[in-house]
Structures are given as structure tokens and as C-alpha cells.
Amino acid sequence: MLLPRLIPTLLVDESLNLVKTTAFQQRHYIGDPLNSAYIFSGFEADELVVLDIDASRKRRTISYEFVKALATFTSVPLCVGGGICNLEQIKNLLALGTERIALSASLNNNFKLLEEASNRFGSSSITVIINCFKDEEDSYLGSFGLPSTNSNRKIDQLCIDCQNAGAGELIINNINLEGTKKGYDISLMKSLNQKLSIPLIALGGCGQLKHIEDILSATPISGVACGSFLVYAPNTYQVLLSYPDKSSWLKANLTSFNKRWDK
Amino acid sequence: MDNIAIIDYGSGNISSLFSAFRSIGAQAYLASTSEDLKKANAFVLPGVGHFGYASENLKSKSIREPLIEHINNGIPTLGICLGFQLLTKTSEESKNSSGLGLLPLKTIHLKPKNSLKYKIPHIGWNYIQKTSLNSTLLENIPSERQIFYYSNSYGILPSDEFPAMQANYIHEMPLVAILEYKNIYGVQFHPEKSRIQGLQLLKNFLQK
């Protein structure tokens, strides 16, 4: 049986500080991303997602030196993203020892890159990050990179287009929930998972184990990604990286979650 | 062990494999020519890329035939993910290219019926099914650690007729996770990204 992945998601800023954001706005300094990645690797994290959240805006790519160090200091599967906009960059980043490349903002101007990348490197090497939020009419919109009035689209069609273009996995990041610790968006993930045949990862909102239980009981998505939940001590904004207790709990309880959606 | 030749078919992501070998004290080098193959004590066919591209690349570098000859002469060989699939006869990933054909097996495109539960690509950590046969690659790996990291859209169908040690993983249907046949070893997962059990598996291979 393939286990759902519990994925620490590390965000770095332009100075290569590890930060945590709330609803894409406030930033809280966490510390050194390499040290944190090393610790999560020691915890035997299922996978690590590391994103440079300033890269696209600054029109540059996540630093190769940084990714090289990341791959050197860790032994877990890595997915990296931030400002990646062509095949050459994907090739270089994969060669440094990463498993998957996350694309997002650059797809606004060049959606064809997704298909080209998937054909060249295999769909299992290409992840797409979709930022989603609700509009005034309470329906879900999605965007690559930051939402902007002219590129937002209905989330269902956006996801299906990505799947058809060869995306190997989608990370659905709920902007409204990011950093809130209010729980994942269950109805959205359930609905998307029924429509798509590629792995889906939920990101945004996880604050306690119950949130993971709630979503995995509702729908068999491929993984849950967490920021706050794995970098802060419970009920505080004090930095305390954790993983093993949560991962063991997930393994121990998985069968009972699965039973619920098998019915 | 020294002189592990990692076969170069332009697949790109092999730095993790080099690091894994380094961490268990083994020396590996990239082999791109038939001359490079001669000094090898073991071959590793790495695991990222496209079946057709890799197969054609082996031909255009003129290492396909010498490689088959060396393997037939008994050099221990480990295929990882795509590298494992390249040891089979054919793959649905590329109908116009053939594999090395050293294993009488087929590589198929995974197409689960229940697409709500079973997604493709098959990405993540999956268990090895218990088998009555002993896998020498799994020696010294306790059963709770017999879980490995996969990233594949294609897989190898098990065959009852082929007298090789085969251990499976399940993704709706059983597919070959580990195969051992004479001096030929294949794993569908990535041992180089599979924690201490992955490193132990590589160590076990190097003792062949």
C-alpha cells in the first residue's frame, strides 16, 4: 500500500531565510533553511518541499548553490521551486539531486513549458503549485503564482488543464487558509480528487493532527503538506520543528481513515 | 567495493546515486563508452528519464551490445526504476525502442481502474509484499523497514513462468518491486532516496 505523504514545506525569502507566511502576507522568521532541512531529513521526512517565495517577483530562479547544499545536507526526496521558467533550469536543478521541480508563476506566460518539461523529464519529475481562493460568489479560483485579476481561473478546469499537459502532481495551496491552523479545505480537495487521476497534495491550514485525520478520512489524496504545523510548538509561534510523532501517528491510524472512504 | 560503473544514458539525476554510494564508502564513476565498461566490477543502470530516449542513447553511444555482453559474462548489475525497466524486453513508454531484453518481462503503463484511490504517477513510500522467497537484497532490513520510495508511471508485470526471485508492491495490482536473477538485480524504487534501508540494499548489492 502506498502511504499518503506527510510533507514539511519550507519557504525561503530572498535572503535565504526560512520564513513562515500567513495568508501570503505576514512573514515570520524561522531560521536557517539548510539546518531545518537537515533536521527534517534526520526525522526521515517522507519528502521535503522547498520554495523560494521571492524568486518569481524578483525575476530570478531559486539559487543553484542553495539547492546544491540542500541536496548535500539531506537524503530525503526533494521538490524545489521558485522562479523556474525554462527547461535548462529544470535540467540543472534535477541534476543537483532533486526529485521534482515545482512550477507555478512562469506558467502564466508560458503554459507550454509544462508539457515540454513533462515530455523531457517525465511527469513524475514535475509538480505544479496552484494557489486557490474563493471569489465574491464563493466559487473557487486558482492561479499560478500570486493571484492577479487577469490570470485567475476556475480551479477545476485549471487543474484538469495541468493534468492534460503532463503535470505529475498538483500541490493545491489554499491562500485563505495559509498559516491559519483552521484545517484543510476538505470539500475542495474531495471534489478535485474525484476529477483527477494524478496525485494531489493539500497545503494550507493544518494546525493539528485532527486536520490530517479529517481530510484523509474524507478523500484519499496523496499527501498533506504542512508549514506551521511542523515548525511551531503547539499553540504558539515559537519555533520547534517536529515530525516523528506525527508521522508515527499517521501510520498507526491510516487504516481506520481508509475504511471511512472505502464505504 | 570500487569501480561501480553508473551507466550514462543522459538521464540527468544521478548525483543522489553518487552520494549514496559515497556514504557507504563505495567508489562509483559514470560510464559513457565501451572502454569505460571494461574496468567495472559492477554496473548500475540509474533511474530517471524516458525509456525510448535511454534505449536510443545506449545504441548511439555503442555501449548497448558491450553492456549486454559484460552482463551475460556475470558482472553484477543493478537496474533502478527506469534502469530496471531497460533490462526488460519492451516498454509501453516507447513502442519503437527495445530494452536490453535480459529479463523476459514486460514494462507496462500503469492505468488503475480505481482512479480515486490509485493515482499515476505512483509517487511515495510503498511496502514490499511478503514473499516466500528470500530476497538477498533485503538482507539485514527488518520487515517494518521494507518500505521504499517510488516515482514511476510505468511498472513491470510479475511473471510466474520466469524462475527469478520476485517481490512485489501493490498499486491496485501487484507489480515487481525487486527482482533477482543470477547476476542481475532490479528494483522499481529509488534505494538512493530510501533512508537507511535503501543504503543497506545498495550495500547488499555490492557484496555480490
Would you summarize the structure shown here?
The complex is a heterodimer of chains A (263) and B (208). Chain A has helices spanning 33-42, 64-73, 87-95, 112-121, 155-164, 186-195, 209-218, 228-231, 244-262; strands spanning 5-12, 18-22, 26-31, 48-52, 78-81, 100-103, 126-134, 140-143, 153-154, 169-174, 200-203, 223-226.
Features:
heterodimer, A: alpha/beta, TIM Barrel, eight-stranded parallel barrel, 9 helices, 35% helix, 23% strand, globular, B: alpha/beta, Rossmann fold, 27% strand
What layout of secondary structure does this protein have?
The complex is a heterodimer of chains A (263) and B (208).
Chain A (H helix, E strand, L loop, with lengths): L4 E8 L5 E5 L3 E6 L1 H10 L5 E5 L11 H10 L4 E4 L5 H9 L4 E4 L8 H10 L4 E9 L5 E4 L9 E2 H10 L4 E6 L11 H10 L4 E4 L5 H10 L4 E4 L1 H4 L12 H19 L1
Parallel strand pairs in A: 1-4, 1-12, 4-5, 5-6, 6-7, 7-10, 10-11, 11-12
Antiparallel strand pairs in A: 1-2, 2-3, 7-8, 8-9
Chain B lengths: L3 E4 L7 H9 L4 E4 L2 H5 L3 E4 L5 H10 L3 H9 L4 E4 L1 H4 L4 E2 L14 E4 L12 E6 L19 E6 L1 E3 L8 E7 L1 E9 L2 E4 L7 H12 L2
Parallel strand pairs in B: 1-2, 1-3, 3-4, 4-12, 5-6
Antiparallel strand pairs in B: 6-9, 7-8, 10-11, 11-12
Order of helices and strands of chain A: EEEHEHEHEHEEEHEHEHEHH
Q: Give the number of domains of chain A.
A: 1
Task: Give the fraction of residues assigned to helices of chain A.
Answer: 25-40%
Looking at the overall shape, the CATH architecture of chain B is 3-Layer(aba) Sandwich
Name of the CATH architecture of chain A:
Alpha-Beta Barrel
Q: What is the end-to-end distance of chain A?
A: 18 Å
Strand order of the largest sheet of chain A: 1-4-5-6-7-10-11-12
State which percent range the strand residues of chain B make up: 25-35%
Tell me, rounded to a whole number, the average pLDDT of chain B: 94
How would you classify the helix and strand content of chain A by structural class? Answer: alpha/beta
Count all strands of chain A and give the number: 12
Total beta strands of chain B: 12
Strand order of the largest sheet of chain B: 2-1-3-4-12-11-10
Stretches of chain A where pLDDT falls below 50 for ≥5 residues?
A: none
CATH names the topology of chain B as Rossmann fold
CATH H level, superfamily name of chain A: Aldolase class I
